[in-house]
Design brief:
It is a single chain. It contains 4 helices and no strands. By secondary structure, it is mostly helical. Helix 1 runs parallel beside helix 4 and helix 2 packs antiparallel against helix 3. The longest helix is centred in the C-terminal third of the chain and has 32 residues.
Length: 132
Amino acid sequence: MNELTARCSHAHSRAVEELAEATAKWGCAVPDDPGITELADQLAYVAGHLPEDLVSRAEAATDLEAAVEHLRAAARLGGLLPVVTLHHLRLALQRERSARHDQARSATADERKAGRVPGGPGSSTPPPSGRS
């Protein structure tokens, strides 16, 4: 195994771990050693079942659907083109994070409409950190 393949293999494993953690944050029961297709199926389910009252529902669903497409592309490639597979995994991570950001932005907007301060009493949003 050459050095590039070894680096891609490690990065691939890490990306799948991060995607599994992200999928769990959406409330999915992720198996101990998930496959890329399993993660894609779970995120596809989440994309189709986002709460109706989510302000940024369409944006979050679009981001999740894009993540699913990248995961499916990575699954189709398997080990044939490790660099391209890794690229798709990284794009899937970016789109999932964007969806989570859309959801968090929506939660903050809902709290402001309800007169709550993000991070204050009754808030589901953590208080802003003092860091920039």
